Amino acid sequence: MVRIAVDAMGGDFAPSEIVKGAILASQELSVEVILVGNPEKINSELRKYGEKGKIPIVSASQVIEMDEAPAQAVKQKKDASINVAVSLVKQGKADAVVSAGNTGAIMAAALFKLGRIPGIERPAIATEFPLPSGTVLLLDMGANVDCKPKNLEQFAIMGNHYAKQVLHIKNPRVGLLNIGEEKEKGNELTRETWPLLKQLPINFIGNLESKEILRGKADVVICDGFVGNLILKFSESLVSSMFQIIKTELSRGIMNKIGMAFLMPTLFRLRKKLSYDEYGGAPLLGTNGVVFKAHGRSKALAIKNAIRETAEAAKGNMTQKIGKKA
């Protein structure tokens, strides 16, 4: 059984929602969850569900807050929950880590304690976006705002193997995000990256415009972290704004209100499909261990799904397989 160390103190709703999500995972998934953090606070939450004593706890006396400088905090707070959780993987006491805490701190702890996969210069954050059928994986989503062509080449290798091992796509189509389909288009970074991806033993389909991301043309989309993070944050706000607009428009007039009654079940299903809760966490690819970052606002369902995806990655020996190709 895969052992997942969960940072119980990381995230906007920690530890209550983190612990609740861990309970759901332990009940519904074939995983062993280890909660890391303040034992008193964790046990207080476990008691609410009659789970005290059923899920192992590893004590950590410190927490790295969202507004702290990541690298400095990781170095100074040796007993921070994310440090202790990552150390469990380093020591072989856990197979993977999930945290909804400070993204920079998660990356710093993973790099300091686990190191990089040989051949990978920079780890990348990969995120799934929903499609009408299936999902598309984008990376990097913010770990590296300044990239070299070699970094994007490595992102393609890692994204390709993640899509195979975790998303179970037999021959992932890999596209390079650009402002045009022609290989001559784009900036210096994308123009120099194109030939590197072309020579890789992957199903590289060439440049991909942003309008094609959600149309299912590619299974994996490669970009630098600056562009990727802009896409991520814009898409989150767009979904929220779209539902607010629909709600406002449907509440105007008696006929619209009647129509809303019929549309609500469909809208709720759509909202569920677009919610990050359903996709759980984003893997930090390239570190010498399985590390997943859950959304900072994750509640119980998101944490459970993050644990599910983390277990899939650990079972598929994701780190070792990426290392063989790096």
Protein architecture, described:
- It is a single chain.
- It is built from eleven helices and eleven strands.
- Strands 3-2-1-4-11-10-5-6-9-7-8 form an eleven-stranded mixed beta sheet, sandwiched between helices.
- It has two domains: 1-120 and 286-326, Isopropylmalate Dehydrogenase; 121-279, Isopropylmalate Dehydrogenase (3-Layer(aba) Sandwich).
- It has 326 residues and is of the alpha/beta class.
Question: Which properties best describe this structure?
Answer:
single chain; 326 residues; alpha/beta; Isopropylmalate Dehydrogenase; 11-stranded mixed beta sheet; 46% helix
- Using the coordinates above, name the CATH class of the largest domain: Alpha Beta
**Could you give the distance between the termini?**
28 Å
Taken from the alpha-carbon principal axes, the silhouette is globular
How confident is the prediction overall: mean pLDDT?
A: 89
What would a concise description of this structure say?
The protein has 326 residues and is an alpha/beta fold. The chain has helices at residues 16-28, 39-48, 70-76, 81-90, 103-113, 149-165, 188-198, 225-250, 254-274, 300-315, 318-325, and strands spanning 2-7, 31-37, 57-59, 96-99, 124-130, 135-139, 173-177, 203-208, 220-222, 281-285, 290-294.
